[in-house]
Amino acid sequence: MAEAVAPTRTAEAAFKRPRYGRSMSLPQSNALSFYGAIAPFFILFGVFSLFPIAFSFYLGFHSWDGSGAPRWVGFANYASVLNDPVFLKAVWNTVVVWFWSTLITVSLAFVLAYLVNEYVAFGRNYFRIVFLVPLLVAPAISAIILRVFFSSHGGIVNGFLGALSGDPVYWDWLGSETWIKPLIVLLIVWRWTGWHFIIFLAGLQAIPRDLYEAAKVDGAGGRQIFYRITLPLMAPTLAFSITNATLGGIQIFDEPFVLTNGIGGTDNAGTTLGMFLYGTAFTQFQFGLGSAVSLYIFAIVTGLTLLYHAALRRRAL
Q1: Does the pTM of the predicted model rise above 0.90?
Q2: CATH superfamily of 84-316
Q3: Contact, 264 vs 82, CB < 8 A?
Q4: Which residues, including other chains, have CB under 8 Å from residue 137's CB and lie 6 or more apart?
Q5: 296 contacts: CB under 8 Å, gap ≥ 6
Q6: Span 249-258, pLDDT tens digits
């Protein structure tokens, strides 16, 4: 009987099972390359994002005009801002502009996307391009175009109204306390409807057609299909769209600034929080007050976003 040959160390090493769960570390050269590759992102993020946020929070409790050492004032900046009637009016103007611009923009974009998705079989890319063109125009240029339309002397709208009435019309649309906010809303709707339209059209096209066919087989009508299938499945897309409209509406600056020549209109009827922040920090050089205003804007945006998402989750339950 042949004797069994004992396995050599080489054979034992070849058939040895690897041990899982042991932490694996990169060689030092690879680790340095890895950290060197991701370092630029973290450096830029820290310099241009984290530091400005932290410094703004710091300035909110100090008085500083941009030179010298900041002086500690505690919560005086926040109290001073709340007692400023221009700030309170800016809050009201911003909420009005945000509410109506978001309501009209999102509703109009959703209706247009639904109609194109349901009744346009060919050439949908044409509608994508057409509705997206206003967004490619700079906000300042868009506001200048609107000023040309609604100018009190030689404006296209006044010229059209004068042609209808037979008498010259010199209505000061941009100087009116009543009309300045609707004009800002009109400009926002014109610029951003196409962007929301593209988002909604993509969401509608992502809904499986089998659901619609099964609902029709079961005898569901068009209204039932819309409320029971389309609208619930579009809820996440609607949430994304409304959240972005809220973020942009509360921070609106370019459109009202150009429309009112940077003065906020008659009796600050067109002053928004963004304009008030700009004037406080970069015109009056009260950076502490400006930082307090920025934190109030952050609180308003966060509060509105949380309220909407809470309502959306409650509806889903």
Answers
A1: no
A2: MetI-like (1.10.3720.10)
A3: no
A4: 145, 191
A5: 78, 81, 273
A6: 888 888 888 8
